[in-house]
Amino acid sequence: MNKKRGLFLTLEGVEGVGKSTNIEFITQYLEQRGIEFILTREPGGTHLAEKIRGLLLEVHDEPLTELSELLLVFAARAQHLERLIKPALEQGKWVVCDRFTDATFAYQGAGRGLDLAKISVLQSMVQGKLRPDLTIILDLDPAIGMQRAIHRGSLDRFEQEKQSFFERVRTAYLKIAAAEPQRCLVIDASKPLQDVKTDLLAALERGLAAIN
Ligand code: Z5A
């Protein structure tokens, strides 16, 4: 029997914007509706892809080149897609993913300044036509995000970047949202958490109604 493909939802935003916090609201929403889903993240999501995540986030004596970083992001994604995301979608499960390829366009593209056309080539090579059905972009001034995240202790390789890097990342996310309004919903994450939750759930209802 052919089961209907599950939906692919992604959550994006700058550092400390509240993705982990808000993803919990999304999963509660899906549970209440009896929707079968998996929760995963990028970079990572499978045993090997999580090892690649370690390489990407740790600070190394030998600096990682920008191209190596880009290729590692897509290597992790290729593993994640084939081993976890695609099988789940084919079984009819929804996939909720903390970051996906929009993060590559934002961080490696706008942040590092790598050629967006090259990222698009890798996107097609690794994903074929697969794209998220719905993407929630939590938008916040990176200075506030950094303040929210700072208590976590030592900074990873990305967290050590300057504020201007994260400002480029934020602008890139807003550009993606403007270019693909049918897929991307932007939520103002500077509001108190309860208000962000209300906006997020309303956006989710609207977004899902438009897809289904
Ligand atoms: N990366 C990349 O470069 N290219 C790629 O293609 C991909 C990723 C996929 C790891 O991502 C890094 O990988 C990321 C980009 C890069 N690096 N950076 N930066 P990650 O998603 O694992 O790491 P992260 O961005 O650092 O996520 P995070 O710091 O865990 O942030 P978060 O999940 O968005 O935030 P949170 O933990 O939910 O919230 C932070 C704190 O704020 C917490 O105490 C909350 O209680 C509080 N909070 C949340 N919402 C609010 C509101 N509304 N008001 C007040 N306080 C709040």
Write the topology of this structure:
Layout: E1 8-13, H1 19-32, E2 37-41, H2 47-57, H3 66-90, E3 94-98, H4 101-111, H5 116-127, E4 134-139, H6 142-149, H7 163-179, E5 184-188, H8 193-211
Parallel strand pairs: 1-3, 1-4, 2-3, 4-5
Helix pairs in contact: 1-8, 2-3, 3-5, 4-7
The structure holds ligand Z5A.
Ligand Z5A binds next to helix 1, helix 4, helix 6 and helix 8.
Note down, in words, how this protein is organized.
The chain is built from 8 helices and 5 strands, in the order βαβααβααβααβα. It has helices at 19-32, 47-57, 66-90, 101-111, 116-127, 142-149, 163-179, 193-211; strands at residues 8-13, 37-41, 94-98, 134-139, 184-188. Strands 2-3-1-4-5 form a 5-stranded parallel β-sheet, with helices on both faces. α4 (101-111) packs across α7. It is globular, with a radius of gyration of 17 Å. The model has no long low-confidence stretch (mean pLDDT 94). It binds ligand Z5A. The site of ligand Z5A has 25 residues, from α1, α4, α6 and α8.
